[in-house]
Amino acid sequence: MSEAEVKVVKRGRWTRVFVEADGRDVSHLNYGPVAFGLGARAPLGMAGIGGVGTNPQYRRRGFARQVFARAMEAMAEEGYSCVGLHTGTDIVAHRLYRRFGFVDILVQEPAVKLLDPAAFLARGLTSCLSRAAGKVPEFADWRCDLAVRAVGHPEVNLRIEAGCAEVAPSAARADLTLTAARDALVRLWMGMLTPQFAEAGGFVRWEGEAEHWRRLKTALGSVHQVVNDGGEL
User: Fold this and answer.
1) What is the pTM of this model?
2) What does the pLDDT look like over 131-163, one tens digit per residue?
3) What superfamily in CATH does domain 117-226 come from?
4) CB 226 within 8 A of CB 190
5) Which residues lie closer than 8 Å to 16 by C-beta, 6 or more apart?
6) Span 111-131, pLDDT tens digits
7) Which of the following CATH numbers is that of domain 5-108: 3.40.630.30, 1.10.3380.30, 3.30.70.1150, 3.30.565.10?
8) Of the candidates 201, 199, 202, 197, the residue with the CA atom closest to the CA atom of residue 223
């Protein structure tokens, strides 16, 4: 493996901090200005972190710690007064956040029951496609047979066509198949989990054509929508 290097690259409102090893980005996070709902009466000068992840084959090498250490320095240099992120207390990364001094200010476990999984997936994806179509014209011509498997639930088949997703009969061969635990799938569809993080963390697996997966990830959203619902990476 080539020597690892921590880099900081500004992209519009957002900054990406990452470790480059073997000629590619292997561990990373993004940060940018956000307004978390803390009840403050004056601007806090707060940064928000999102898109934290390390490629599975590069874990347990201290890369995430290097990324966070450099990000803390960069944010202080830019004049931010504090930094926050949304996370779960049950994930391994939560221990890393605590080591860097993050404290929990709000802990909540929303409970969601899917009364009609097929309708939930079709309506949610149609909404995502509609939002994305304004920025990415290719979605109007995208056609894909998608099979979604939530562990413990029947497979749902969707047909993506003309900017909409509709429940479809079982396809002989889906163009793209997603497999995930139900909670991960719900979080992904509700925008509480980015496709990039879901894939990097192993929360979702996909099979099929890579181009369809790329388009689905774009439709479901990126870290800027999860952290701040705005701004471009």
Assistant:
1) 0.59
2) 777 666 677 788 999 999 988 788 999 999 988
3) SCP2 sterol-binding domain (3.30.1050.10)
4) no
5) 8, 9, 10, 28, 29, 30, 51, 233
6) 777 888 899 999 989 888 887
7) 3.40.630.30
8) 197
